[in-house]
Amino acid sequence: MAMWTAKIEGGPKRVNHAAAAVDHQVFSFGGYCSGFDFETPVPMDVHVFNTLTYKWKKLPAPTDPEDKKSTPYRRYGHTAIAKDFYIYIWGGRDDSHGACNKLFRYNTRNHKWKLPEVSGKVPGPRDGHSACLIKDSMYIFAGFEEETERFSSSIFAVDLNTYQWSEATYSGTPASYRDFHTSVTLDDRYMVVFGGRCDASGPSELYREYYCNKLHFFDTDRKVWFQLDPSGAKVKGRRSHSAFVYNNKIYIFGGYNSLTREHMKDLLCFDSEFGTWLNVGKDIIGLEGPCARRRQVSCLVGSRVFIFGGTSPSGRYDENDQPNLLDHHDLHILDFQPSLRIFCMHVVLKYKLDTSRLPRVLREEIEILKPKESHKNTIESETQG
């Protein structure tokens, strides 16, 4: 039975950031935060969450002139994909440079950036696209293209061994033009697209939004698009949600629908074996999960999912009757295989049992699991040298 096991506050306050996990660490790149100056170019900031100690660390910005040349500028609406001990960043934008189409490679061992020399047909600059890793290639789908000022429905792939880009040709009906959707990988073969903001006009942004609630599959072997008609729970269309795959099941958390002005906190599961949608959020035990939000990220490490950041309504409204938003600095841990040790520690917390006779290491672990209500900055800084 899945369990919300921890809530960690005081992390980086970010929305529309990108993250990927390597070994026991979650790397978070860039993102937007209210009050940031996105007109002055600065290097991409990198935060690391240690999934063993539950601590955040901010890595230092590069100081060497050569390193600075290959470091991406801070941005939002980009994607991050991990392969081996590298993380690849693509796309995104800031308010000075606009959107980007350079491929950046981050080495998680020495914390250095590199600009691989690419070839082939490179997709145009965009943000709000999605990315997933299938075999040795990173697939990019859709997003909002800066040069044409249009939504995209194209698929590009870059071979991460040769760094050659290509645009996919296909048969079947593709997922429609959209941005701020998700794509995940099934069976190291299928790219599965869900949600996003679409426009009834097609590629043009004419503010006739609609929100797709269908699952679109792209078979990368046969180059075919197809759809399934799942049974089970009714699923609302949304954008700016997060998605992950565990045990060959697709999970969707949160998101936003501007037509209903609804921020969501549901956790949905698509069981690919039975072709069924399930609303599994109500069955999760333990702590209270994340509040309704959008623009967060989720990363799977083993049997645990780490959901952090995002934004939610503050309860106040502006002069146009639009909700003011509150950016989050919290991180929530969902464990699909909680150990007996975790269960026992939560019993200790629930019934406020005396821990004074427990070993110090257990007392420290129990302290970590206590929900922290106040914002305490727990981010450590790593200095150069």
TrEMBL record:
One Pfam family it belongs to: Kelch_KLHDC2_KLHL20_DRC7
Segments passing through the bilayer: none
Listed name of the protein: DgyrCDS6649
InterPro entries per record: Kelch-typ_b-propeller, Kelch_2, KLHDC3-like
GO CC annotation terms, alphabetical: cytoplasm
SUPFAM superfamilies, alphabetized: Kelch motif
GO MF entry, a single one: chromatin binding
Superkingdom, natural source: Eukaryota
